[in-house]
């Protein structure tokens, strides 16, 4: 009897510690908060993706879209966040990484680190040594050209500053008066301006307005 | 004949002139008032005007005739304005039949029928200006369109800036429009009326008041030298708009705040498919609030529905699904319903799409008669995987670390530094070691002084026995040449022994 109670308590503790356990047991709503907290702590795109998927499984549209948008912002070259966003009905425009396709690969992730390091080494040697200089500089240039599409695509995909509403809210004008309703999970762009706990955003139809920062993520 | 052909040609070319009768509104009964007959682009000069007979209304030529020509975007427009007088004997509404203008080529032009209203002038029009603003309608529910109409009456003068604006927080539903017309006061004097209209709505219940001060300017002075502009202000009669809460009674489940008008339309790209094939279901919802239209849940037994990306443009939001039926038969796609509030009837209604039928026929089967030698069957082709926009599986931290974007640039800078440092170290090592002594000997050639210098440098090097002997022999040969006058022997063999000494 005691052993059974002990096993029950240990299994309970394990399931509480591992949010994936609750999710796999059909309780994704219990996994959302810990997964979001984990994602906030480590800042990894895959953690945000899992948090978004858990929220989607729990029917929490706003946090789901917002978490997936954060995952997309952190790793625009990864197809999983944008595919998940589109599966949730979010009209995310075609990204530059999608347009570039495999051309972007040398300029993203660890491949970009390796390619640019080699290019830098070649440039350093090429400028300093007269011997092999043309070959070194040419190969460095080729490496830079290879990496350029991916680097530019990632940069351009980050520049819209996507965000999403985590709950149903009201768009406000500059005086704080409500303009219109904005449902949870609306994809919008941050303008970068903040004022009085409000953030300037552009709605999907192009209207510029303000939203409470607490209703936005990331 | 030629004239007729020219007229026919002009008529075919669409260069038909127009005649407009501009009447004051209203015409004061018993007062003779000025009116204008505008003849636009007449094919020939007008010679006379024939007025119709209207009981209770008298029209006659009066005043001056003027001509104005404008060229806009390369198109020339000539307008002849003929001054008229109009006199109404009683109050009421009249219809003035077409007025005929006779041209000097014998052709005729006619105006359209014109409405004339004979009534007392606006008794409110006194002084120099009157400004009023109204909401039409002045009671709405959130999202219901209304118009803010601003009427500015001016006895004379002009306005450079409007004195009011739509209320804060309103949602504009279109462009502001301005129209200018004329009216008369109780004394029959003409006033200019500028009407500005904003189509708008509000999302939040409450009471909204619009008021302000209208500034205008008039030119005073009776001659050129003492004329000056005088600014004046007039208070705008305020208007109030009441935005009431949406009624709670009768509010249907699933109501998302949509305000009518709203329409929904569903369609299939094909009505018959073979089993295993797909059909595209499109659902278009037209509304002023497309952002509030949610994708409806769609599930039918026997059909796998794959939602595609929503599209929203021109006030219509379109949802699409790829439908893949699993078995033959007739599949009925039920109507989609979108509840909305109808401001006209002040009730909740639902916009429904039509119910659709998709007929799924069994997959095609073909019997083949094979003649000739049998062969091994071809490998069956792999069916294409259906790509569905379903959610991916969680990664559970298996994605691996993603380097920061700055790391790539740091790698570039680090590589550049490493390459430079490598080169620098090579240079420093070469400088510390000095010149390659073997190469110096080779470069000296048969120059005795250079040979002497190179051999002196070799003296401090670590040499093998053979190299030491060769160095001493070479030294002696050079000294014999320099101080004994002997010719230098062939040095190639000796230099070859020593040229590798670093």
Q: Assess the beta-strand content of chain B as a share of residues.
A: 35-45%
CATH C-level name of the largest domain in chain B: Mainly Beta
Count of strand segments of chain B: 27
Which sequence of strands runs across the widest sheet of chain A? 6-5-4-1-7
Uncertain regions of chain B: pLDDT < 50 for 5+ in a row?
Answer: 7-15, 364-388
Range of strand content of chain A: 15-25%
Query: Largest sheet of chain B, described in full?
Result: 8 strands, mixed
Secondary structure topology:
The complex is a heterodimer of chains A (218) and B (502).
Chain A: H1 2-17, H2 19-24, H3 28-42, H4 45-57, H5 61-74, H6 79-87, H7 96-100, H8 109-128, H9 133-158, E1 162-165, E2 169-172, E3 178-182, E4 187-195, E5 198-202, E6 208-212, E7 216-217
Antiparallel strand pairs in A: 1-4, 1-7, 2-3, 4-5, 5-6
Helix pairs in contact in A: 3-4, 4-5, 5-6, 8-9
Chain B: H1 2-12, E1 18-22, E2 32-40, E3 46-50, E4 57-72, E5 75-88, E6 92-96, E7 100-103, E8 108-110, E9 114-118, E10 129-136, E11 139-140, E12 146-154, E13 171-172, E14 177-184, E15 190-201, E16 206-220, E17 228-243, E18 263-268, E19 272-274, E20 279-286, E21 303-307, E22 311-313, E23 316-325, E24 329-333, E25 337-342, E26 347-352, E27 356-361, H2 405-433, H3 437-444, H4 448-458, H5 465-484, H6 492-498
Parallel strand pairs in B: 10-17, 11-17, 19-27
Antiparallel strand pairs in B: 1-2, 2-5, 3-7, 4-5, 6-9, 7-8, 10-12, 12-15, 13-15, 14-15, 16-17, 18-20, 20-23, 21-23, 22-23, 24-27, 25-26
Helix pairs in contact in B: 3-4, 4-5
Describe the structure in your own words.
Chain A is an alpha+beta fold. Chain A folds into 3 domains: 2-92, Tetratricopeptide repeat domain (Serine Threonine Protein Phosphatase 5, Tetratricopeptide repeat), CATH 1.25.40; 97-157; 162-217, SH3 type barrels. Chain A has helices at 2-17, 19-24, 28-42, 45-57, 61-74, 79-87, 96-100, 109-128, 133-158, and strands spanning 162-165, 169-172, 178-182, 187-195, 198-202, 208-212, 216-217. In chain A, helix 4 runs antiparallel to helix 5. The longest helix of chain A is centred in the last third of the chain and has 26 residues, at 133-158. The termini of chain A are far apart. Residues 4-16 of chain A have low confidence and may be disordered. Chain B has 4 domains: 15-118, Immunoglobulin-like; 129-243, Sandwich (Immunoglobulin-like); 263-361, Immunoglobulin-like; 437-498. Helices cover 17% and strands 39% of the residues of chain B. Chain B contains 6 helices and 27 strands. At the A-B interface, helix 4, helix 6, helix 8, helix 9 and strand 3 of A face helix 2 of B.
């Amino acid at each position: 009897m005691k052993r059974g109670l002990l096993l029950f308590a240990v299994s309970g503790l394990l399931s509480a510690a591992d949010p994936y356990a609750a999710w796999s047991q059909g309780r994704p709503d219990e996994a959302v908060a810990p997964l979001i907290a984990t994602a906030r702590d480590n800042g990894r795109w895959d953690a945000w993706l899992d948090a978004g998927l858990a929220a989607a499984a729990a029917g929490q549209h706003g946090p789901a879209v917002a978490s997936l948008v954060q995952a997309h912002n952190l790793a625009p070259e990864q197809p999983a966040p944008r595919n998940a966003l589109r599966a949730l009905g979010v009209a995310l425009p075609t990204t530059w990484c999608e347009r570039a396709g495999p051309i972007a690969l040398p300029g993203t992730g660890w491949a970009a680190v390796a390619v640019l390091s080699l290019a830098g080494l070649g440039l350093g040697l090429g400028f300093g040594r007269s011997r092999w200089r043309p070959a070194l500089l040419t190969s460095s240039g080729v490496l830079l050209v290879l990496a350029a599409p991916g680097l530019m695509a990632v940069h351009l995909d980050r520049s819209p500053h996507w965000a999403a509403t985590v709950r149903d809210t009201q768009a406000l004008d500059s005086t704080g008066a409500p303009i219109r309703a904005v449902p949870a999970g609306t994809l919008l762009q941050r303008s970068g301006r903040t004022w009085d706990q409000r953030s300037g955003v552009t709605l999907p139809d192009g209207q510029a307005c303000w939203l409470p920062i607490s209703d936005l993520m990331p | 004949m030629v004239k007729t052909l020219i007229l026919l040609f002009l008529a075919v070319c669409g260069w038909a002139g127009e005649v407009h009768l501009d009447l004051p509104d209203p015409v004061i009964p018993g007062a003779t008032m000025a009116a204008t007959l505008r003849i636009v682009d007449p094919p020939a000069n007008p010679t006379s005007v024939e007025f119709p007979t209207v009981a209770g209304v008298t029209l006659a030529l009066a005043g001056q005739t003027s001509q104005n020509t404008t060229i806009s975007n390369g198109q020339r427009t000539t307008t002849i304005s003929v001054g008229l007088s109009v006199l109404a004997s009683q109050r009421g509404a009249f219809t003035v039949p077409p007025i005929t203008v006779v041209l000097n080529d014998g052709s005729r032009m006619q105006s359209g029928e014109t409405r004339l209203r004979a009534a007392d002038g606006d008794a409110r029009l006194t002084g120099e200006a009157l400004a009023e603003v109204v909401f039409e309608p002045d009671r709405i529910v959130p999202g219901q369109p209304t118009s803010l109409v601003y009427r500015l009456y001016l006895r004379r003068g002009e306005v450079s800036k409007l004195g009011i604006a739509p209320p804060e927080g309103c949602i504009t539903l279109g462009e502001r429009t301005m129209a200018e017309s004329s009216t008369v006061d109780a004394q029959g004097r003409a006033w200019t009326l500028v009407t500005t209209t904003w189509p708008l709505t509000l999302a939040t219940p409450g009471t909204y008041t619009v008021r302000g001060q209208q500034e205008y300017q008039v030119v005073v002075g009776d001659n050129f030298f003492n004329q000056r502009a005088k600014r004046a202000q007039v208070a705008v009669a305020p208007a109030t708009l009441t935005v009431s809460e949406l009624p709670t009674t009768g509010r249907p489940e699933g109501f998302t705040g949509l305000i009518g008008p709203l329409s929904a339309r569903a369609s299939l790209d094909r009505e018959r498919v073979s089993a295993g094939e797909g059909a595209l279901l499109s659902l278009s919802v037209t509304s002023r609030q497309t952002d509030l239209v949610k994708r409806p849940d769609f599930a039918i037994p026997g059909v796998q529905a794959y939602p595609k990306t929503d599209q929203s443009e021109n006030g219509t939001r379109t949802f699409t699904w790829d439908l893949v039926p699993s078995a033959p038969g007739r599949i009925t796609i039920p109507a989609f319903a979108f509840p909305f509030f109808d401001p006209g009837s002040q009730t909740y209604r639902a916009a429904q799409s039509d119910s659709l039928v998709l007929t799924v026929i069994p997959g095609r089967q073909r019997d083949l008669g094979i003649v000739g030698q049998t062969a091994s069957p071809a490998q069956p082709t792999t069916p294409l995987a259906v790509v569905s926009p379903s959610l991916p599986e969680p990664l559970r931290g298996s994605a691996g670390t993603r380097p920061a974007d700055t790391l790539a640039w740091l790698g570039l800078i680090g590589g550049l530094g490493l390459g430079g440092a490598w080169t620098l170290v090579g240079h420093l090592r070469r400088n510390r070691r000095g010149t390659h002594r073997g190469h110096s000997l080779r470069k000296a050639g048969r120059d005795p002084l250079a040979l002497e210098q190179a051999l002196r440098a070799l003296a401090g090097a670590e040499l093998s026995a053979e190299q030491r002997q060769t160095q001493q022999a070479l030294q002696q040969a050079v000294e014999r040449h320099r101080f004994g006058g002997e010719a230098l022997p062939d040095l190639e063999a000796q230099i070859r022994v020593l040229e590798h000494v670093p």
